[in-house]
Design goal:
Elements lengths: L20 E3 L42 E2 L12 E8 L14 E3 L2 E5 L5 E5 L5 E5 L12 E3 L2 E6 L3 E6 L5 E6 L12 E3 L2 E5 L7 E6 L5 E6 L29 E3 L4 E6 L23 E6 L5 E6 L15 E7 L2 E8 L7 E4 L9 E5 L11 E5 L30 E2 L11 E3 L13 E2 L6 E7 L2 E3 L16 E8 L4 E8 L10 E3 L3 E5 L4 E6 L5 E6 L9 E5 L2 E8 L15 E7 L23 E2 L6 E4 L3 E2 L4 E2 L10 E2 L2 E4 L3 E6 L8 E6 L5 E4 L4 E6 L3 E6 L7 E6 L1
Parallel strand pairs: 2-32, 25-26, 39-44, 40-45, 44-50
Antiparallel strand pairs: 1-23, 3-38, 4-5, 5-6, 6-7, 8-9, 9-10, 10-11, 12-13, 13-14, 14-15, 16-17, 17-18, 18-19, 20-21, 21-22, 23-24, 26-29, 27-28, 28-30, 30-31, 32-33, 33-34, 34-35, 36-37, 37-38, 40-43, 41-42, 45-48, 46-47, 46-49, 49-50
Amino acid sequence: MAIEVSRRDVLKGAAAAAAATTLTQLPLTGAVAAPVDATSAPPRSCTTPGGKDFPKVGGNYGNQNYSGLDGIHRGNVRRLGAAWVNRIEGGLTTGTNQSTAVAVDGVLYIESALGNVVAVDARTGQTNWKYIQTRGTLTRRGVAVGEGRVFTHGRGNWVIALDQATGAVVWEKQINGYGNMEKVAITYHDGLLHVGTHDSARAAALALSAADGSLVWNFWGTPGPGEFGNDTWAGDSWQVGGSTPWIHPALDPELGLVYWTFGNARGNNSSQDGSGREGMNLFSSSIVAMEIKTGKYRWHFQSIHHGIWDMDNEMAPVLADVRIHGRERKIVVYGSKSGMYFILDRTDGSAPLGIDEVPVPQEPRQKTWPTQPFPRQGPWTENHVVDQPLGTSVPGNPNRAVPNYVQGALYDPHWDVPVLSIPGHGGGADWSHQSFSHSTGLVYTGYGYVAAAHSLTEASNGLRPPGEYQTGGVVAVDPSTNKVRWKRRMPYSLAHGNGVLSTAGDLIYIGQPDGNLLAIDAHNGREVWRFQTGAAISSSPIMYEVDGVEYLAVYAGGTGIPYGDSAPRGDFLWAFKIGGTLPPAPAPVPPVVRRPVSGGPVEGSVVNNTVVLARTYDAATGTVGSIESTAVNAMAPTHLRVPAGTTVTFVNPADNANVHGATQFFEGLFDIRLKPGESFTYTFRRRGEYFFNDCYSPRPTGKIEVY
C-alpha cells in the first residue's frame, strides 16, 4: 500500500497505522523543478573517472573514488613497492589525521594533524612548500584545488586560499553564524566552494565564492520558520536540532545539482532523547538535492525518521550511471551507519529498486516515528545482536552481544534501560569513503561492527560496552540490484575514514588501523598484497600518473575512532609504484580491538586481589566509593593486574541494597550472583585478559589482566 504523508500531518504521526509501506516516490520529497540551465562551459561529468590526476577528495564530483589507470593490476601487484615516503611533519606521532591527499599536475596536497598544508612533488616525494597553520590544530579531511589555489580551513571558522604554486596566502575569510567549520573537506566547482559546518546546535551547507570566500548561499540542516520542513520539529526544537553535514557533498554539474547528507538529530539533552522534538525532524539523517548555483531545494530523502540512536547516514554520497530493470538510471548511492544502501534516482529522488516503510517498535515517551525505511533488498550487514552462549568460540560472531544487556534490533526504542543494538553509531559504513568501480560495476565500502547501548542514562550518543570486540570488514554491493556480491570480514573496524579506492586494474585498496595498506581482488575480496605504512590509516588511497608512471599513494596518520589512543599515529605520506624498493615501516603496536574499561591498571597487591562490585574506585587515594553505583566504572577497581595463579575475590558490600554479580565474558569462566555481604573467589591460571560485568546493570564493567 502506498501512502503520502501531508506536511500538516507530520507531527500527528498520521502514518502510525501503516503496515509495510511501498515507496515509489519517496515521502516528503517536495516538487521537482526543471533541470537548472547551465550557463558556464560544458560541465565535466560527475562520473568521469580519475586518470593522470586525482583532483579532489572522492576522485571526481560523484565521489566514486575510482581511477581509470590500469597499469597496476592483479598480474603485477605483487611487484608493487614503495617509491618514496615523506614524513610531512618531521616524524610527528600524535594527533588526529583524517585527511585524504589530492593529486593535481604532478603535485600532492595534504593536510596534517596540525592543520598545516603540504605540497609534495608526486614523483620524488620532496616537499615543494608548506603552509603553517596560524590558528592552532584542527581536524581536517582534505583540501580543494581550483583556479590556481588550494583551499583549506583554519580554526575559528576560517576558510583560507593558498597560492597553488607557492603556498602563500591569497585570502582568508571568517564565516560565523552557521556552526563550526573544520572537519568537512572543501569541494571546488565552477567558482564556488562547497563547505559544511558541524558541532553546533544548528548547522548548514554553504557555498562560498572561490574568489574571496564571501557567502553565496546557505542551506540549513534544520529548517527555520517559513522554510520547508520546519513543521517537522515540535515547537522551537529546530533551534538545537543538529542535522550536521559532516562529510563533503557530491555534485552533478550536468543536472546542476549538489547532494548534501545531513547527520542525526540532536538537542534536547542528547541525540538519544527525542521526547522534546516530536516529528520527522527534517533534514536530519537525510540526503538533500539542491541547485548548485542557488542552494534552492529540489528533493530529499530521509533515511531515519526522528532518530534517537545517532544512526545517521552521513556518508559522502556516491553518484553512478547504472542499468536497472533494463533502463539506464542516474543514481545516487546513499547510506552508511545503518548498514544498508538506499539507491535513489538522482534526478528526482525516486527509488527504482523500491524502499519500504516498515513498522517498528514504539516508545511513546520518545515520540518515535511509526515506520522506518528499508530497501526492499535488505541490508548488507547484520542489524540484530546475536545472543551467543558464553564459553563458546571466542571472539565468536562479530555482532555478538555483551552479556546482561537488553538485546535489540536496529530501531528498537529505548528510555531509561540500555538497549544493545548493531551496527551501532560507530558501525556500519559510518564515514568511510565508498567507491564505485567502472570496471566491475560494484560499490565497495569498509564497515564496522561496533554495537552500542542506547538509553537516556547514557551520555552523548550512547555507550559502546567495554569488553566488546570492535571489528569489521569490506563489502561489495551491486547498485543495479542492491544485492551483496561478496563480503569479507576483517580484524578491524574499517568505518572511520578508511576509504576504498577501486581501479581499472580490478583491484581495490584500503588501509587498516594497524598500519597495513591492503590490495584486494575487486571480483572476490581475496587479499593479494599488503604493505606496512607505520601508522593507522584513516584516509582514502589515491592513484595518479607522472611522466608515464602510475603511482598509488596514501596518508598514514591515524585517528582515535574507534580505538582511542591505542591506534598508532604518524605523519607518513607514501607513494608506491611497480618495482618500488623502499622497505616497509616498522610495524607499530596494533590497536586494542576490545573496547577498554574506563580505569587504568591497578596491581592486585594494592587492593588485596579484591574487586568490590557496584562501587567506584579512586586510584589516586586507593579508596573504594561509599555509595552503591551502576556507573560504567563501578567496579573497584575496573582494571586489576595479577600474576597467573592468583585467586581474586569478588565481593558485594553488605551495605549495598541489591544483588550484584560478575559475568565473565566471553570465555564464560564464571557467572555469579551475590547478595549484599556475600563474596566469591576464582583462581586465574592462564595469562590473558578477562572482562566481566554486573548482572544487576551491565554498565559496570571490569577486567582482570593476568600476566
